[in-house]
Specification:
Order of helices and strands: EHHEHEHEHHEHEHEHEH
Oligomer: single chain
CATH class: Alpha Beta
Helix content: 25-40%
Mean pLDDT: 94
Structural class: alpha/beta
CATH topology: TIM Barrel
Strand order of the largest sheet: 1-2-3-4-5-6-7-8
CATH architecture: Alpha-Beta Barrel
Radius of gyration: 17 Å
């Protein structure tokens, strides 16, 4: 949750920086438990940072109970990598936002490029999932980004379409995180150029201001040490992938963001 001395994109104070980690489907259950225990140990690091940084992790559904157990009493939040738009009914294999909230989850990822590509998720579906999440009191991590490398203006236009559609489904006054992830930079050798990200981020800030939400903006797409320093002032944090499988890499990013 955005702390009292941070008022999102519409207030005077800058939002508290935030780092998110999605494990996707890289770990099994035992490996996820080991990793979560290592993340829980980072609570001492979080408490000792010169400036506070929020941290949340998104393991696979079966590991949510483990996250609740292992992260209890720490400052690390957790959530899921997907959610269904319906609250209940004949939706075999799906998980509702209310059920996620019952697990203690705080965050939920929606609209990732892989789900759009492999499972046919559209802007309309992402908006419905955003609505379900915010209605249940969850913080949706709305993923958006252009599919192919393009000039910053074109990238901003494509990404804005996705973000505006999702935000249209957000409950008034709700908290959201927008994760700008240019698809062509996901899993690439290096992140998108800083000037490119700054241009798109400025446009996304405008979209957040246009909606009745408390929003933070993070960058993902081969993010790692040094990324935030290049983007400081443009984004509120980072969305990490495989770099954070080694929690020492995650620690390095947290400390760098805090110092920045």
């Amino acid at each position: 949750m955005i702390p009292e001395n941070s008022t999102g994109t519409t207030g005077r104070a800058a939002p508290r920086p935030v780092v998110g980690v999605s494990l996707k489907l890289y770990f099994g259950l035992a490996q996820t438990r080991t990793w979560l225990a290592e993340v829980a140990a980072l609570d001492a690091v979080l408490a000792g940072l010169p400036h506070p940084v929020d941290l949340f992790v998104l393991p696979s559904f079966p590991a949510l109970a483990d996250a609740r157990e292992l992260l209890a009493g720490t400052g690390v939040g957790y959530g899921a990598q997907d959610v269904h738009w319906a609250g209940r009914g004949a939706w075999t294999g799906e998980v509702s936002a209310d059920m996620l909230a019952e697990t203690g989850a705080r965050y939920v990822e929606v609209g990732h490029a892989e789900r759009r590509r492999h499972f046919g998720e559209t802007d309309r579906i992402v908006a419905a999932k955003t609505q379900a999440a915010t209605t249940a009191g969850l913080v949706p991590v709305i993923c958006a980004g252009e599919r192919r490398a393009a000039d910053p203006a074109a990238a901003a236009a494509e990404t804005l379409t996705q973000v505006r559609a999702a935000l249209a489904g957000a409950a008034p006054g709700s908290e959201v995180i927008v994760a700008y992830e240019p698809v062509w930079a996901i899993g690439a050798g290096e992140p998108a150029p800083a000037r490119h990200v700054r241009t798109v981020a400025a446009a996304l800030r405008g979209a957040l201001r246009d909606h009745d939400v408390r929003g933070r903006l993070i960058y993902g797409g081969t993010a790692g040490p040094g990324t935030y320093k290049e983007l400081a002032g443009a984004v509120d944090g980072l969305f990490l992938g495989r770099l954070a499988h080694d929690t020492e890499g995650l620690r390095t990013v947290l400390e760098e963001i805090s110092r920045s």
